[in-house]
Amino acid sequence: MKFEFENPTRLVFGAGSLSQLGEAVRAYGKKALLVTGGGSVKRNGTFERAVASLNASGVSVVECSGVEPNPRLSTVVRGAEIARNEGCDVVIGLGGGSTMDAAKVMAAAVFYEGDPWEMIAHGQENRNLPTRALPIITVPTLAATGSEMNAGAVITNEKTTEKSFVIAKCLFPKVAVVDPELTVSVPPDQTAFGICDLITHVTESYFNGVDGTPIQDRFAEGVILTAMEWGPKAIADGNNPEARAQVQWASVVALNGWVQVGSAAAYPVHMIEHVLSAHHDIAHGAGLAVVNPAWMRFAAESRPARFAQFAQRIFGLALQHPEDAEAAKEGIERFEAFLRSIGCPTRLSELKIGDSLLGRYAQDTVRIIHNSEGLLPGRPPMSEKDIIKVLRSAL
Amino acid sequence: MKFEFENPTRLVFGAGSLSQLGEAVRAYGKKALLVTGGGSVKRNGTFERAVASLNASGVSVVECSGVEPNPRLSTVVRGAEIARNEGCDVVIGLGGGSTMDAAKVMAAAVFYEGDPWEMIAHGQENRNLPTRALPIITVPTLAATGSEMNAGAVITNEKTTEKSFVIAKCLFPKVAVVDPELTVSVPPDQTAFGICDLITHVTESYFNGVDGTPIQDRFAEGVILTAMEWGPKAIADGNNPEARAQVQWASVVALNGWVQVGSAAAYPVHMIEHVLSAHHDIAHGAGLAVVNPAWMRFAAESRPARFAQFAQRIFGLALQHPEDAEAAKEGIERFEAFLRSIGCPTRLSELKIGDSLLGRYAQDTVRIIHNSEGLLPGRPPMSEKDIIKVLRSAL
Questions:
Q1: Which pTM value belongs to this model?
Q2: CATH class of A10-183
Q3: N or C: which end of chain B has fewer CB within 10 A?
Q4: Cβ separation A222–B225 shorter than 8 A
Q5: Interface residue ranges in chain A relative to chain B, Cβ cutoff 8 Å
Q6: pLDDT tens digits for B5-15?
Q7: What's the CATH number for B188-392?
């Protein structure tokens, strides 16, 4: 293990913590761009409560609503323009991963000359990572992406149908105000997709990271076991505060770097899913539920011991030997069954995706991110043929 | 769970990372107070390599050597005076926990008017936490205290025989340069004491934290299992780089807050041990190895389910039921046996401590830290009688 780690975001966690938003923001500015999806946070009163907390602390609010799922570059441009024109000195992302991601990139785009897509487009020649952003405050209303406490964002270029990502130090939120009460109104299907998303963050590094990270393995398993214990309770009763808190906390640690630290992990499942949701505008977590088990069966062929360990530690399966391929397979079956049990799709057909564009999805995935041999990074690295094979197995 | 979390320290981890020290320090200053114990780092060449890296980056060095185990207030005062007189603009702690802790408090004492003990003495009326410090860089040469990546320090007031602690935001190191190669010369006994120390950091929050922290429980178990797997290898062969790296990494995460987050844990075992080592100048990890199992037997009486979980998840013991007191007891036996197997003492007599001062140790412990009822915080809170009982059981 050889790595650097840093995560300076201050986390304020707990039921009722939304009331601390104004105080948290006031330390960084007096005029906030408040970025939202616009729908549910207004219907359920979260928006109003956020504004009340901000105003009570002397922070005035400029609104940027209407961030769509799979947030678009044009939305980022629009938000940055509002922030510039209004002289905002802090940006708040109040919503799901899409809203927080859009808010983060808006905060950087305020200072960015030229096309903000240059900051994002992974694998492009002219990529130019942001180095400066307005202070960012995140308030998640969904337990899923972990965007509240990391320096990443995923944006879709609607003109080119590309969905890509940016990770830059200036995108770390100053404060993440994480109030599990805000998630009680999330419907069961979205709750399940969020659980799938957070588990997939962890399985990516677990299966695609470097060897020799026993502590990170245990941390990853801890997140998965907790999400599998408390996730179904949050789905069965959305008003269960304990279940909402445990799932929300799992989503934070699933991608704040504590699990991935030192793993130098690739994220092939996410990369493949990003292309699917760029083309079909499906829920990210739903797409992951389809791609992840199919990818796991593919990857287990070349690395059975790793998947056998997963089967043993997550599902308590006994191994005949460390490379027990049968146990590995059974672990993946059980994982897929768990996803189905919480209401996730596990077939492309459930997402109304057929086989007509499989080649295109594979091409797009590898175009966005590839190693020096033109393969999608991961264990094992994947050719376009491999990606097609995985997707075909999930039709 | 309701909590705040923040840890802004940048971590540079890996074999050979000492060569990055100069670059890391140069971002914060040009003239460094280099704090060391003075002995082993000079003998084994670490000091020389550190100075070479610093000088190569244009950082000049002022030395403050001679920090003793259980570092003394007078040493802190001496270091702060050197830093002030020489106009140092950054402080480096190169050594074990004692050296890093002394360096941290020196960095704050530079700005502190009056007796620096006021910053430390927990439970004193006139306590005055530091709010400002010179930038701190830590370079651990021992895997043990986790001081390299947290905001705490433990100092002994040799005049009053008090050992107490301070935790303050300004004491977070800016950078922790953690190079496991620096620990290859640590002898087996000190290596074992470090392993006991890091495991105890984790058991304190595991057994004394609030209920309802399943992820933190799994993280704690992950650290313990990894330390128990790799610790004996590091002791058997000090030159095993993989074992040194895993133990070092375990010591970082055992007390950087990732395991303790949201647990609001008390540290009764540490508090009792601090008094023992203030009186007898024993190695901290050795004292913990004696006190921890004795304390566990005491605490398991009132909370068997928690210790049964420990027995099940750490030692794979089958439980007859969740409150299985027999399994709980067996888990503690096995833990104590593990400590003995790596060469730790588990009896006070091995530390040449008899029963003549048991009442005094108990008094001192409760004087330094107590709740509103005059009890040592923990699960359960302890009276002086309880402390005497625990210590007597370990004679």
A1: 0.96
A2: alpha beta
A3: C
A4: no
A5: 1-17, 212, 214-215, 217-219, 221-223, 225-226, 229-230, 242, 245-246, 249-250, 253, 258, 262
A6: 999 999 999 99
A7: 1.20.1090.10
